[in-house]
Amino acid sequence: MQIHRSGSVLLTGAVAVALAVTALPAAAQAAPSATAVISEVYGGGGNSGATLTRDFVELANAGSAPFEVGGLSVQYLPGSPSAGSQWQVSELSGSIAPGGRYLVAQAAGTGGTVALPTADATGTVAMAAGSGTVALVSGTAPLTCKSAADCAADTRIVDLVGYGSAVVREGGGPVPGASATASVARAASLADTDDNAADLAAGAPTPVNAKGETSGGGQEPEEPGPTEPGDVRIHDIQGTTRVSPLDGTSVTGVPGVVTGVRASGSRGFWIQDTAPDGDPRTGEGLFVYTGSTAPAVKAGDAVLVSGKVAEYYPGTGTQSLTQITAPRFTVQSSGNALPAPAVLDARSVPGRYVPSADGGAIDALPLDPSRYALDLYEALEGSRVEFADTRVTGATTAYDEIWVTVKPRENPTRRGGTLYASYEDQNTGRLKVMSLDPARPVPTANVGDVLKGRTTGVLDYASYGGYNVQATELGTVVDKKLRREVTRKQKKDELAVATYNVENLDAGDDQAKFDTLAEGVAVSLSSPDIVSLEEIQDDNGAVNDGTTGSEATLKRFTEAIVAKGGPRYAWRYIAPENNKDGGEPGGNIRNVFLFNPQRVSFTDRAGGDATTPVRAVDTWKGVELSASPGRINPASPAWADSRKPLVGEFVFRGKPVFVIGNHFASKGGDQSLHGRYQEPTRSSETKRIQQAAEVNTFVAALLKADRSAKVVALGDFNDFEFSPTMKALTKGRALKPLIATLPPSERYSYVFDGNSQTLDHILTSPGIRRPDYDVVHINAEFADQASDHDPQVVRVKVGGGFWH
User: Fold this and answer.
1) Angle of CA points 730, 667, 21, to nearest 5°
2) pLDDT tens per residue, range 528-538
3) What local confidence, expressed as pLDDT, does residue 748 receive?
4) DSSP 371-402
5) 801 pLDDT higher than 60
6) Are 430 and 755 in contact (CB under 8 A)?
7) What is the mean pLDDT of residues 748-775?
8) For residue 126, what are the CA distances in angstroms to 53, 54, 58, 74?
């Protein structure tokens, strides 16, 4: 590995490093799928002798609930991939009904006479007739694996089929027999044992789309819709817990009035009973899922619905959404009045968030909507609700969503958000809002703005954010003129040290992103002396080709800072081992120091690389680093697949300063606040506690050598000020978290699901006295943001007791 430096300083020679080779797993497969599978693959479309004109991939849902494919992709790799072979991607949308099919049309040839049925998704991949690999993938980024073992280890792969002589396949061998006239198809049972040769067989191609249509234009006849009300009402289906007592049961003639229609994505409509039973626990609203078919109903239609009751879990660990699937329905009349909406406000929404199940599932607990906010929302699932004059607590997203609070006085921040202050004190008034009318999306709003007037819609539940309002009537956004902050300039005898997560910056990003981030450094942060950056990627970003350097990225960034009126920063970093530091695959994320050489100097000591631990060295002149820049114990299991802290020794006004740039493991994998498991398990916390202990041990070594050593530890620690991670980081009072010096209403740097919270921190050693600390709010609260994190800065006055 090389120690990388700015162009103003000569590069050191390459340091020889013996890279450890990690043994790949044996040909193990992912767990067999009980939901979506690849049911048929045909690459002979349009070939000589073929009947069908196009290639296709057919998916099927072996589960009992709809399977969302929005955001997933079908990908193809040649059967014998070369070094230059790439996975070709076809993006998907919509969902697959229980037991249903989903057809992905691919490239057409010049032969054949019969068209496919109307495809549910269309790609342009020319698949080989005799040999190839098809994967159903969570996400749309191209796969990079080219062997069975590597693909088996890629958790993004939902299902995989290798046919012919394919190198990449599941099990002992690929499916034989594919040709211009034969596809490979899964058995009617849709069984998935993760052995392609056992699960699929060759035969005549039989493509079926989500409507049940075949290539001959036929369709299985549908049963007629109900004509008389049945004995079951919506409140019977919803029941008094989160799971329907009729889950898995067929129902007939359920009456209701249509209150909202979703014509894209997960299509369907909501119905509500106009004769409620009076029990606040039993919901009167319900979603009718129509799959890929746009429902032929409108608000105000009185309908009778038959179908199967199902509990749909939209994500791992989420609560479920009760719905009717495979519906048949009859419209009895139109233009009916809609049921009155339930009012959500500070009086109706309880102050407690959710009941406890000691970490277990709350599915079977009786609802108590007068006591718990999530119980109230569950009891109103699928029903009409309304609120008025709500404050925006999460800015408009790229998906046209905002977060509001129906409780304006609940934990307010100074700038209009809602503070997340502890694990026990949840914010019960938060709700996500989106529009059901694509022609009238949620308007652009920032935190602190007000959604003035009445907003009405249907209460829904989704994996991202939990309970949300699908608005049929939106209030008007009142701009409260939230402005980006600008911190003061450091004085001549003050050292200014900042941290900024620049969100996966690489040399291929648009110039606009570089310019906005640069303005944040030069203007909003007033050009700090040292800036510790998180999420600098390698120069070609997510391209996974072994590139690890970031010189082009940092050159563009520092030049953009100069263009915005800032100084010409130099930089230091240590490139990670390829794909060993987590983050976006191929991105090789790392921490970087920028520094203004006109104000502060960097002490370069050779020996730092991706695998060598930095040590505190006690010398007659005081404590020094064994290598600068260096990394804290990079071989520790605490840092496996995670960013390693970058340590540097700086000199300001003749005195040494030790800066530690951090980016701890993310919260990915934690159970959600709104999920079915309560209290939620924070599984990712274990790794961050270990990482915090490593940093604390290193700082303790510095202070043991010199108790007055000046240490600044800063960065994206991915955890809250009240977390066990921070307790481990500050053990023995080695470090003081400066966020605690701010008023509570200002303790945040990040906004997630309408909660203003702190993930970024600056901490200082006891030798640093009277620091002047500021979180500079320029991103997290705004709809247009260059990063999802706000930067922070600490200024220390030398003459005011910084050195002693």
Assistant:
1) 95
2) 999 999 999 99
3) 98
4) TBHHHHHHHTTTSEEEEEEEEEEE---TTS-E
5) no
6) yes
7) 97
8) 12, 9, 15, 13
